[in-house]
Structure formats: C-alpha cells, structure tokens
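Chapter review: from sequence to fold.
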Amino acid sequence: MDTNRNNDSEMEKLYAETFQVIQPGVLLTGKVISVKSGGVIVDIGYKSEGFIKKEEFSEEEIKGLRSGDVLEVYVEQMRDSEGMVRLSKERATKMKSWDSLEKACQEGSPIEGRIIEKTKGGMTVDIGGVKAFLPASQIDTRLIKDFDALIGRTMDFRILKMNSKRSNIIVSRRVLLEEERFKMKGETLCRISEGALIRGTVKNITDYGVFIDLGGLDGLLHISDISWGRITHPSEFFSIGDEIDVIVLKYDAEHEKVTLGYKQNNPDPWEKIAEKYSAGTKVSGKVVSITDYGAFIEIERGLEGLVHISEIDWSPRLKHPSKYLAVGEVVDAIVLKVDEDERKLSLSIRRTKQSPWQLVRDHYQPGQQISGKVKSITDFGAFVGLPEGVDGLIHISDMSWTKHVKHPSEVLKKGQKVDAVILSVDAEREKIALGLKQLEPDPWVDRIPSLFRLGDEITGKALKLTDFGIFLEMEGGVEGLIYSSEVVQSSEGAPIMEGDLLRARIIRIDTEERKIGLSMKHVRTE
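The token string follows.
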C-alpha cells in the first residue's frame, strides 16, 4: 500500500510540474500525431493532446503534414470542451517573429516582407506572419500611381515604429531607398565632370526635356540637346526606364545641378553641310513628319530638310502634303538651298521628275488653238486644264471683245469644256495665257467702225446701272456707256431699271480703247 501511494504521489508531482510549464501564453514544440477534418492533433508531452484548427494551415501545408513533423505552437487554452489543449501555430509564428522584429527595430536593420494588399492610406505587408502597415508616403521616393502592381512583391523595409501591446508595426521602404540613393550620390559626384560620358536611367519625361537618374543624382537633358534634327516631344526618343549614355555639358557643384547632352554623342551633321549637299545634289531620305505647309525628310541621322508644299508636285492645284506622302516613306529629292547658319535645308521632290512646263514650251505656241475644261474660276479669270497637267489662265479682259464682263462666271462655268487661243507661254514662270475672245476677229477693227458713227441715235437695253453711268446693249451685242452726266430721267419721274429700253445718241467712238460713249440728251423721241 505504501508503495502504491508513493507512486501515485510521484505521478501527481510530475503532472503538477508539467502543468506549471504547459499553460496559456507559453510557446512549445510539438509533434504531429494525425491530421483530422477539423484540424491537426499534436503531442506536446502533456497528459492531454493538443489541437490546432485547420484554418491556420494553407491547403499545401495540410497536404504536406506527416505524423512526426515538428511544429512550434502557442498554448491558447488548457482544455477545450473535448478535453484537449487548444494550440495556435499562427500565434507561435507571430511571437517568434515579433522578437526578431523588435531586435530589427532597435538595430535599424532592414527586414524582408511581402506586400499582400492595398488598404486605406497605404498597403499591408506580411513580415514573417506578422502584418505591418506601409504608409503610401513611405512606399517610394516618387509618387506611386499603380498600387495594385506592387501586390505580391517581396521587398526590404525598415521598421519605423512598433507597439507590442497593440501589435501595430509601421514600416518604410522609402527610407532604405533614400539611404541607397545618398550612397550612390556620393559615388556619382566623384565621377561627374564636364565632358564626362555617364550612363543613366530615364526617370521622368516633360515637354521641355528628360530627367535622367545618374545614380542618386538627377540631371536634365533639355529637348534641344536630344537630337541634331527637329524634335516635337522627348517621348519620340525615350521611355521611362530607358538606360542611355549622356554627356555632362555643365555641372554646378554648389547647387548640384547637372545639364546633360545626348545628341553630342554623335558629330553635328550640319558641320560642312554645304560641301556635302550643294544645291542640285540628289538625295534620298525618309519622310519623318508632315505638316500643312510641307514635309520633313531625314536624309541622314539628325539631318532633316523641308520639302515645301509647292515643291512636292507640279500640279497647279496642290492638295495637302499627306495626299502625296506618308510618314516612313522613302523618297528622292533635289537640294534647292542650304543655309548653314540657320540650319535649314530646302528640298524638292517635284524636280526629280520632268517638268510639264518643258512639254508645254515644246508643244504650244502663241496663236495655237486648244481645248480644255474650266478647273476653277476667280474674280480675275478662269483656269483651264491642259493635257500636260498644267492650267492656263483666261483673264477676264480676254473673255469678250464687246461686253463689259464684271465677273468670269457671267461667261464660263466650272467644268465647262471650252476652246481658247494661246496668247503667251512663259515656261520659266510657269504661266500660260489664254484668250476666249481671240477665237473671233476683233470687231473693233472693221465691223464696229462701219456699223456705228458719231451722232447716230440708237435704241438699246439697259444692262447694268453703275455710279458712273448705264451700260447699254446695242446692235450685235456691242455695249456702250451712257455717262452719268448724260442720263436723262423720264418726264414721269420713274427711275431707270435694268432691262429698260433706252434711246441714246453716240457721242464718242474710241477703237483703241474699245469704248463707245452715249448720251440721252438731245435725242429725238419717237
């Protein structure tokens, strides 16, 4: 009996000592016994087995667990409703991580974490099972627009503040970046000098230039130093993140300002350009830009010339340059003019082809009769298209021998087929004059002088009323002018209207000026 009592006493003592060690809030090491549907059974060396909820494991962890696997656990409750010790793997992980985090916070050493989600004012970072808050202002040295792109990325952080009671941790990535940038800046300053070639990364692009990260120090590459040729916007050449070689043009050590150049990596194509591309030289290049007034052709890297709209085609009625050319197209051109001081190069595409005016000069002579369609009508005349692709002008003064033509549309219409006589050909000035009235003999030479004489009284229809008189249609379509001083109003006082038949007397015949003057005074009434 005494022996049994002693054994029972020893067992109770052992359980009591064990109970002192295994209690809520203690970290233990246990071995997996089995995996059940609701969780994991763990042997923690206690009279009761431990239990961890299945929710604390990922699917992969559950599948990988085997009997005998060792786990660190945290005692939450000594006995649950089923008499088992309630354990937590997550809290054990957090407690273990918390100790290392406190040490990292005290020492200021970086810690590794993974960004897991976006939250109000920043992002949440998982650091060894412990969640920390990363404020938006502490993510980077620059403004972050796409927060979602950071989710899932693993980075180094520094703990700014932690509260063990509230389990709050605030971390920063920006602090580490600034320290790294400061370190790089010191190294960069040792390498920077005017004329030095240095490699950098495009950090930001603006309308006026590009900011280049040289390694802890930013430099400005102005738009004017990007290319020897014409440039509209820096984005035509660079994208953010590009690594490029630049030359230090100017360095202000006091204010740490760096001015950079990119085009200076290549020789200036405008040097001795007049020797290389003299007027008349035929060149080949790519269309790089089209405007309302012409097209820019790149004939070598950084060297562009302008083909003015008037030099694109021989057509007298030019369309928009985009109707003839396309960006990226390779074309031949002739150098017209080189202005080295102004850095301007004038080119011509049309002069690579035979001029239609050479054909006009060879095929047409004054006095020759031609046919064509009226292409356009202006206040001063009408343009008639010829088969060679050029237009001839019928001036308003060459439309009628006898009529006072106020506007060409009174005689011709657009699209009308018309015969005309060539009056003159000026191929050098690209002009050809045509005449419509010259298809018939000049009536002022013989017909009008014999038909009309001074003092004759005639009856005609009022065609136009002007401030200086009334144009009257006479016999044969000839027009005469009743001078305003020679107009007589009717006895009834009614005003004269266009279309009225009027009686007048010829008081002037000028065959050279081709004019007939009329008067309503001293005219017999019939």
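Two observations follow directly from the output. Confidence is low (pLDDT under 50) at residues 11-20. The longest strand covers residues 154-163.
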